[in-house]
Design goal:
Blueprint: H1 25-33, E1 38-43, E2 46-50, E3 53-54, H2 59-68, E4 71-77, E5 83-88, H3 94-100, E6 105-107, H4 118-136, E7 147-150, E8 155-158, E9 166-167, E10 172-180, E11 187-193, E12 204-207, H5 214-226, E13 230-241, E14 246-255, E15 267-274, H6 275-283, H7 294-304
Parallel strand pairs: 1-5, 10-14
Antiparallel strand pairs: 1-2, 2-3, 2-6, 4-5, 7-8, 8-9, 10-11, 10-12, 11-15, 13-14
Length: 307
């Protein structure tokens, strides 16, 4: 990682994913049986926590949870080379899952932002996304037969006699863009999305479609949602967003004109903001996007670039 590279939430995890071990079921089984291996328990997309800290189980407690798990996925090796596994306890009641893990509650990973460092949040989000995928891929989309986990939990195999397809986790890329005005004074375009409260503005974003480059997606989304033609696209960075399987790719771009026409469906209104206006909003208590999202980084870095 470069010294100037921003560390965003859900990125820069501390695990060595050790992909070569996934093809060795005997080694994976031995690691699962190792009392020094670490187990991260989840219940229906929520991590199990004790005093607002995700529990990390080892020894007998880990073995007991592994025996109750609906699915188990090998995440990788920690700094001390101990194996780390994610386990799904969704087949239990919430209370039973919490008790089995010796935890206090089941909490959404995003609710822990500010209490976890980016690297720890990255591992928890990685586990959440992988276990969510397993629950959604129990049957083959081609023949309808059931699927079983393989490859340390990173692939599912169709059990259909005439099919046997291999299913892999899929990522859903989306672009998120800070659009700048073409002339002075410096301004950025923010919009109020459908469902957002009055006065709540954020950057523009949208999913990448089949057969589309990231740059093409930026141009299409800005035109469709806000009626804005953009030029001078610059890649800023990306962020894992496994809620459930996103990858947010951040850009800055310049509008060809100041004209804005919202679609009235995804966006209800959009307007240009100067840096002073954004600072006034922050002083009044409005957040610069979600604190754990790349849009916060886009806006904060834009503010920092000007006087």
């Amino acid at each position: 990682m470069r010294a100037d590279e921003a560390v965003l939430a859900y990125g820069g995890g501390w695990l060595d994913r050790a992909g070569e071990l996934r093809a060795d079921p005997e080694r994976i089984a031995a690691l699962m049986a190792d009392p020094g291996s670490v187990v991260l328990p989840f219940w229906r997309d929520r991590c199990l926590v004790a005093e607002d800290v995700p529990v990390r189980l080892t020894g007998d407690l880990a073995a007991g949870v592994l025996a109750l798990a609906d699915e188990t996925a090998f995440l990788g090796l920690g700094d001390d080379t101990s194996a780390v596994f994610a386990v799904d306890l969704s087949g239990l009641s919430e209370a039973a899952a919490v008790e089995a893990a010796g935890a206090g509650a089941a909490v959404d990973v995003r609710a822990l932002v500010g209490r976890l460092g980016p690297a720890e949040a990255a591992v928890q989000a990685y586990a959440r996304g992988l276990l969510h995928w397993h629950r959604q891929q129990r049957f083959c989309g081609a023949c309808g037969a059931s699927t079983v986990a393989r490859g340390g939990g990173h692939v599912r195999s169709c059990t259909g006699a005439d099919c046997g397809r291999l299913l892999f986790p899929r990522i859903e890329p989306a672009v998120i863009v800070l659009v700048e005005a073409p002339g002075a004074p410096d301004r950025c375009l923010l919009a109020r999305h459908a469902g957002a409260r009055e006065g709540a503005y954020s950057t523009l974003a949208g999913f990448v479609e089949v057969g589309e480059s990231l740059e093409d997606a930026v141009r299409r989304e800005m035109a469709e949602e806000a009626g804005v033609t953009v030029t001078d696209l610059t890649y800023v960075g990306s962020q894992a967003w496994p809620f459930p399987a996103g990858l947010m790719v951040g850009f800055r771009a310049t509008a060809a004109s100041e004209e804005v026409r919202v679609d009235g469906e995804e966006l209800l209104e959009a307007r240009w903001f100067t840096r002073d206006e954004l600072r006034e909003r922050v002083a009044a208590g409005w957040p610069l996007g979600r604190v754990d999202s790349i849009d916060h980084h886009l806006l904060r870095s834009w503010l920092a670039a000007g006087a």
